């Protein structure tokens, strides 16, 4: 396996991208879970699918778009969807959770229309749905590296503000923290991370990578920083084990990564039960 990674560029791209995503997805996921916004990843992943389908359709229809990576269309749609969710949360002040199913439904509907116009599913779209070891390009890797740098820098600089906002938004506002601006930055970063995770985990499973490692970590950790650390550790184990399994068994990596995450969660729950 190690020799194959050094020999083939697509495996280098897949494993490097996977290792980075295994770190930044649970990192943001810890804040998302604490803020009770776990389903936002599902909503944005479906919006991203619409963008990718639109990119593939444009590439089929207009040759000038054929050279543009559909991932960038997905990123644009995901960011736009995150902003619309925030707008809807402001409209439905007392029922803010409505924003997520509204956006999820819209994303699925628009995606189905674009897929139908593109004459149904093709190999490229299938790889975005369930992930693919061989489909990760060097361009995808560069996108993952750029966004991961933004995520790590933002969390490093705004950790205290994000922590306070996650646990007590009213206190954060009363303390003079620019809550709207920080939440705006956070939601855009979440949208970008979801978009770049598509090639590895797939549209239908990306939310699991942001929540399952956090769910396991919360049963073991004694504080929020420890939760983040364990979430990243479990996320890395799930991604790397999932990619190795997908390579040897010729499976879609999204499924193997999620199943590995579930096994980790069950192991932690069993360990906790035995310990108690």
UniProtKB/TrEMBL annotation:
It is a multi-pass membrane protein. InterPro entries: ABC_BtuC-like, ABC_TroCD. It is found in: Cell membrane; Membrane. Gene3D superfamilies: ABC transporter involved in vitamin B12 uptake, BtuC (1.10.3470.10). It holds the Pfam family ABC-3. Keywords: Membrane, Transmembrane, Transmembrane helix, Transport. It comes from the Bacteria. The chain crosses the membrane at residues 14-34, 39-58, 98-121, 141-159, 230-248, 254-271. GO terms for biological process: response to zinc ion; transmembrane transport. Its main location: membrane. GO terms for cellular component: ATP-binding cassette (ABC) transporter complex. Belongs to the ABC-3 integral membrane protein family. This is Metal ABC transporter permease. It comes from Domibacillus enclensis.
